[in-house]
Every structure is written in C-alpha cells, then in structure tokens.
Amino acid sequence: MSRDDGRNLVVVLWTRRYGASYYGRGRDPRTRGGVSGYERYTRASSNADVAAYLLWRFVPAADVLDVGCAQGYVVEALRELGVDAQGVDASRWAISHASRAARPYVRRANVSKHLPFAADSFDVVSVLETLEHIPPGLVPRALDELRRVCRGWVVATIPSFGPNAGGPPGWLEGKVRDDRVGALYELGADFDGPVAEEDLARDVRGELVEGHLTIASYRWWTEQFETAGFLRCPEVERRVHPHLARFGLTAAWCLYVFRTPDAPRGSLDVRDPEELTAVERRWRLDERRPAAIDLELLRLGLGDDALREMGVTAR
C-alpha cells in the first residue's frame, strides 16, 4: 500500500466507522448488539474524568493537546482543572457533536496527515485509544506529527500484547480472532506484530472490532515511538498503574508514557494532596473500585507491594 493509498483508506474508514452509529446513535442503549462502538458515548462512559485527572496529577502541563478527542470530554475535563486543553479528531461527526464546553477548543484533523499547530506547541500530548485505529504503514507518520507538536510528554493508551517494562503485560484475547489466539501465542516472545489484518477480531457485521487496524506488542510500539524521537518512561508508568487499578481501568487501558529528550524531569506527582482529594470527590473518582482482573494484572506487573502501598482492595 502506498502512503497516499493509506491516507485515503484512513479517510474512508473514519467516515464509515466513526459516524453517529459508532457513538451510539440508533442503537439499543442496553447492548452493543455485537457491533463495534459505544452503547452510548458520554463523559462518563469514555472515562474522560479519569484520563484528565491522571494527566493533571502526574504530568506538569500548562497546555495539552488531546489527539483523537472524539466529542471533547477529556478537553472539557482538563479545562475544568485549569489546563489550557485543545483537541483534534478525524471524525467529522464527533467534532460537529462536541460537548458545548469543549466545542470552541476542538477541531477536525488527521494525525496521520498533519496537525494544524506549530512545532513544540504543547507541554503534553495525550493520545488515548487512538493509534490502533491507524494502519501500521501510517503509524510512523502519525508519531512524527506527535513529536513535531510536542515539547514535553506524550501519554498514550494503546491495546497491546506481550511483556511490558512499565506495568502489567498485554494480551491478544479480544483483539484477534478466537481461533488464532493460540497460534499467535505459539510464535513466542519474539513475535511483535503488527497482527495481520486477516487475524484481527471482527464483529457480527464483519467489521474490525472497534475499527482496530494495528495490534502489536509493547516492544513494537516502544520502538516506533523511539524512532520518532521519544524516550519511554516506565518509572512514571509504574507510578500511574496503581491508580488505573484503583479506578477499575487496568484491564481496559494499556498505558505508555514518553518524553522528549529535552523535557525537564522534575517531580511527576505534581499536585498537592488536598487538591487531589478535592478533585476525586468532585468527580466521584473516590467511589470507583477495581475489579478482580484489575488487581490480578496489577499484581502481575508490579507485585504485591504495589497493592499494599496503595491500599487497593477488591470488590
């Protein structure tokens, strides 16, 4: 596939897959009905408050760009915390239906083509559950764009498999066809992917589940970011993971934190404890609890000490 063909494919996919039905329009709100996308897409269902809280808590940022912002809920939440946040998304529908508070700060743009910002514009770029929607051949272009606009940190969540230097390991289940899981695991630790498209999971309509085009290992994604000029920060990831577990998202989000070579290290738990408590109460994050799978994965990645230190308990 040529680069131009790949770009055209992305446009077609976003138009077809990421319109109203992807975000729950016209769907029975009680079930996805075997079709990829959201039962309903809201600030709560998207876990935007958790994402904004963790960005605000752990990364020193005056301005943030949320790439793949959908309807702008992370942007909205960050701005409530006093962060100058903006967002971009390739979905015309999502941007035109952005939340009222986020609408002035989000715009349509495709990270695999060009982001409408000058170089080094943002302290932090978040890219949450987004990069897996880009074909493997366009991932380097997308990461080059992230590096161009970022002067500090990138926080990403990307469905991944295999060993993970920064936390719990990833997995193939749910990401590939059930009948191919065993065969792919048999390829061993040297298999990094990306998984061939014919092996990827599909929904009842025959569409790729959630529109995921690139499923690869932690090692593969790390190498892609490093080639683009980022440095991975597993020590920061290990500090964030107990909170993902506390909020019940360890099993949902495969976390990466990267920095540019010139980013100041500093203290990365950057908020006063009283501020943290106030925000958790305001957004009712203190009421969230981990599921057993979250605790199991946290223990696998960080050991029992992480559970004891955070006082994390199962339901």
Instruction: Please tally the β strands and state the result.
Output: 9
The name CATH uses for the topology is Rossmann fold
Unreliable parts: none
User: What's the architecture, going by CATH?
Assistant: 3-Layer(aba) Sandwich
Number of domains: 1
Summed over residues and divided by their number, the pLDDT gives a mean of 88
Termini distance?
48 Å
Attribute tags:
alpha/beta; two-stranded parallel sheet; single chain; Rossmann fold; 11 helices; 9 strands; 315 residues
Quick recap of the structure?
With 315 residues, this protein is α/β, with parallel strands linked by helices. It has a single domain (3-310), classed as Vaccinia Virus protein VP39 (Rossmann fold), CATH 3.40.50.
Describe this protein's structure.
The protein has 315 residues and is an alpha/beta fold. The chain has a single domain (3-310), classed as Rossmann fold, CATH 3.40.50. 35% of the residues lie in helices and 13% in strands. The protein has eleven helices and nine strands. It has helices spanning 3-17, 48-58, 73-80, 92-96, 139-149, 178-185, 218-227, 234-246, 273-282, 292-302, 304-310; strands spanning 63-67, 84-89, 106-108, 122-128, 150-157, 160-161, 216-217, 231-232, 255-259. The protein has a seven-stranded mixed beta sheet with strand order 3-2-1-4-5-9-8, with helices on both faces. Helix 4 links the parallel strand 2 and strand 3 (106-108). Helix 8 (234-246) packs antiparallel against helix 10 (292-302) and helix 10 packs across helix 11 (304-310). The longest helix is centred in the first third of the chain and has 15 residues, at 3-17. The radius of gyration is 19 Å and the shape is globular. The N and C termini lie far apart (48 Å). The model has no long low-confidence stretch (mean pLDDT 88).
